[in-house]
Amino acid sequence: MPTIKYQIYINAPIEHCFDLARNIDIHTQTVQHTKEKAIGGVTSGLIEERETVTWEAVHFGIKQRLTAQIIEMKKPDYFVDVMVKGAFHSFHHTHQFVKKQDGTLMVDIFHYKSPLGPIGVLADKLFLEKYMERFIIFRSKELKKIAEGS
């Protein structure tokens, strides 16, 4: 079960970073390269605990759908979403926010399990883990730009 951990410092208040990270419209803006859009559940604004969102996006040239649910939230420190339906066997994504003197440390911890048993494990090693890591890093950097107003 691969785990991707990435942290980035953002020169913005913790509350602002927290809200940007759970904003459906901002999420769509930060991942335009995958043509991602919310098509079910919460489709705009801030998602809250116990709510779901269904995303449609193009990954590896294939249109895919994924439904995630926020299963835990402590404002403005963290929230956790899990996949309830989609291409992965499972995933668990923790979004943490640590208040610093002049800003916020945003930490993503993404655990996932690929489908298809041994074939999925091979896909992880060959390309999927790197792809997911690049996706999380790219989105984090885009959030940072928005939060810092650049």
How would you describe this protein?
With 150 residues, this protein is of the alpha+beta class. The protein has one domain: Alpha-D-Glucose-1,6-Bisphosphate, Chain A, domain 4 (2-Layer Sandwich). It contains three helices and seven strands. The protein has helices spanning 14-21, 24-30, 118-147; strands at residues 3-10, 37-41, 52-59, 62-74, 78-85, 90-100, 103-113. It has a seven-stranded antiparallel beta sheet with strand order 1-7-6-5-4-3-2, with helices on one face. A hairpin with a 2-residue loop joins β3 and β4 (62-74). α1 (14-21) crosses α3 (118-147). The longest helix is centred in the C-terminal third of the chain and has 30 residues, at 118-147. It is globular, with a radius of gyration of 15 Å. The termini are far apart. 19% of the residues are buried.
Short description:
The protein is of the alpha+beta class and 150 residues long.
Write the layout of secondary structure elements.
Blueprint: E1 3-10, H1 14-21, H2 24-30, E2 37-41, E3 52-59, E4 62-74, E5 78-85, E6 90-100, E7 103-113, H3 118-147
Antiparallel strand pairs: 1-7, 2-3, 3-4, 4-5, 5-6, 6-7
